[in-house]
Amino acid sequence: MFSLFLATVYFLIQVFTIGSKDIPKTSLVLRDNVNLIELNLANETFVKYFIMYFGYGEGKVDVQFYKDNVLISQQTIESVFYQGKVVSVSNMVDKIIMVVNGNNTEIKEISIKASEDKIIDLTNSKISLLKSSNYKGLVTNLIDEQQKMKRILNYRFTTYFDEIYHARTAYELLKGLPPYDLVHPPTGKWLIALGMALFGVNPFGWRIINLIFGSLILFLMSMLLNKIIKQPGSNLGIFASILMATDFLHTSLSRTANLDTFSLFFVLMSVLLGASYIDNLKYRKSALCYLTFVFAGIAFSCKWNSLYTVIPVLIIVYVIKIKEVLMLEDKKKKHLIILKCSVVSLLAFGIPYYLSYLPIIIKYPYHKYPSALIYDFILLQNHIWKYHSTLVATHPFSSEWYQWILSSKPLWAYFENTLPFNLRSTIVYIGNPLIWGLGFVSVIYLFIIKVKERLRSINVLIIVSCYFFSIIPWILISRIKFIYHYYLALPWLYLSIILAIQSFKVKNEFKVKLVFGASVLSLVTYILYYPALTGLTVSTKWIDILKVFRSWIF
Known about the structure:
By secondary structure, the chain is α+β, with helices and mostly antiparallel strands. 51% of the residues lie in helices and 18% in strands.
């Protein structure tokens, strides 16, 4: 029960800062290929920054700055889903012309700043739509919510990193529009859409479901450890929850609209059910076996790489199921039951995955019905495979698998670029090298004693194999990789730390002290790094002190 309490506390700490619902509501949607908007300032004014906040739609805006009808600078802004964009001007300006190129481009609000914290009052300024025959909304909508633009570039009000794909696609699924991102299965995006349906299209709405699942993961960690060590009343499950709650990467991901949090939740559900099936020697229920496959299928319907982690559990559960069948005396019955078990297992895995696509196939069929129900599904799977197998891309914060072990190459996901130099709001996807390193050593230690001492514990096998299956495929994959691809390996690191300590031939009191010490170390470093994980605005010096390696750029 304490782990459930911890998950609740974790949720309450995060929920008030994950994102705001107070973003610009009114907008101007421009549907012509070329549209012109003119903003005449009441007085000639020094403009340091020009900021534009977009809604839905694609396009680009050429922003021209004038003084006495003379063009002094021009910059281009790309439209991004519910994101604030800024250009640096640092000039005296009396007129701004915006040339909006695109189709169905939605602009929520614009503002200009004289300094980092001073918005210029546009009350007496005149804004006009010079050219556009097909639009929705009033041009004055662009300057009617100026009070909401003061920190609009902060993560609480804008999309960042992969949210521009996942939150956008979730919005499209919610509104019945053609989905943009089909390079991953849709279940995670359906869940993000649920948050928008409940709380609106805003940062809080597209992040809240991730936070709920991220909090529940802490409870699952405790349940899984207690199941593995077969001590339901043990306090060790609490430490598993604490280690996961204070994990740097888990915190960052559970606060943003992404697919990996959902993947991990369903992976843990599958492993927990599988471990329950394996552990129940006398009364193994087929339902647990097939539910293991169901949740593995749901995890797969969030992201394909989820399958890597659950493969060992699926194999073990299936083998045990077949071994039970082989103990039957009737040979004919054996073959039929084996066939039935195989088919039901495949269906239990495949049906949830297929159903995640069904609304998309029905809404936007490529082939004619009823063949679309099969051929469109195959077409969408081929699209995912082709995209990832042929992807050739570079990124300054991409990393290789061996860099994940000690988090030597983090991913800088966000920073607010209009704050004063002495303040910093940044978000980095990073791991705690002390705890991740300890976890890796623990996995290797468990593997060695498993082989050397020939431990028959199947639960140790599950933990070690789930870790290696989470990481080994990425060694073989040539496409671009990021540190968040290591996320599914994290539970097995933390479970390994506790199990490794439990295997020591020392007094139980000393074992508890070691686990407690690891948890305290994780908590202390977590508190120090919390601003860099969450975007909390702190002094620049604080953030700079955290960069203990040269490769840590954030």
